[in-house]
Amino acid sequence: MTDPRVAQQEIIAEFTLLGDWMERYQYLIDMGRKLPALDARERVDENLLAGCQSRVWLIIEGDRDCLRIRANSDAAIVSGLIALLTRVYSGASAQQIVDCEPDFIPAIGLDAHLSPTRSNGLHAMLQAIRGAAQARLANGSDERCGHA
């Protein structure tokens, strides 16, 4: 099982080693390129996340013990943000997701260096992930959770 707090500390350590924000943006883009692709059947409107200027397909599966998060975007930096969020939260329990604030965002300076539209998209993704975790805790659902 993934521990979101450990994953966050690893991300903070990695970004600390990078120099300026051009290097950090390039690192985000590289992370996004490594995301596993979603199948064409998954890149449908039902899985599109509202609140993002870019197209973001988000799929959250699993139960309260382990949520698996898969996502893709048509934008390079947004794909990198997805890579960060899936690294922190995918494989964690619903309770861990609800309890673990995304402290890595201010710690690596993302909150200060993202455009308002990318920041809104990041927060929309976080809300969807945390909302799915809260729903699993409330009803123990193990159904597939697409977000539109």
Keywords:
alpha+beta; 148 residues; Sufe protein. Chain: A; 7 helices; 3-stranded antiparallel sheet; 3 strands
If you had to describe this structure to a student in words, what would you say it looks like?
- The structure is a single chain.
- Helix content is 53%, strand content 12%.
- It has 148 residues and is an alpha+beta fold.
- The chain has a single domain, classed as Sufe protein. Chain: A, CATH 3.90.1010.10.
- Strands 2-1-3 form a three-stranded antiparallel β-sheet.
- A hairpin with a 2-residue loop joins strand 1 and strand 2 (66-73).
Can you give me a brief rundown of this structure?
The protein is of the alpha+beta class.
Strand order of the largest sheet: 2-1-3
Radius of gyration computed on alpha carbons: 14 Å
Instruction: Indicate the CATH topology.
Output: Sufe protein. Chain: A
Characterize the overall form.
globular
**CATH architecture group name:** Alpha-Beta Complex
Residue share in helices? Answer: 40-55%
What number of structural domains do the residues give? 1
Overall SS class: alpha+beta
Strand content: 5-15%
Could you give a short account of the major beta sheet? 3 strands, antiparallel
CATH class membership: Alpha Beta
Alpha plus pi helix count: 7
Which regions contain 5 or more consecutive residues with pLDDT less than 50? 142-148
Number of beta strands: 3
Q: Mean pLDDT across all residues, rounded?
A: 91
* Beginning-to-end CA distance, first to last residue: 27 Å
* H and E order: HHEEHHHHHE
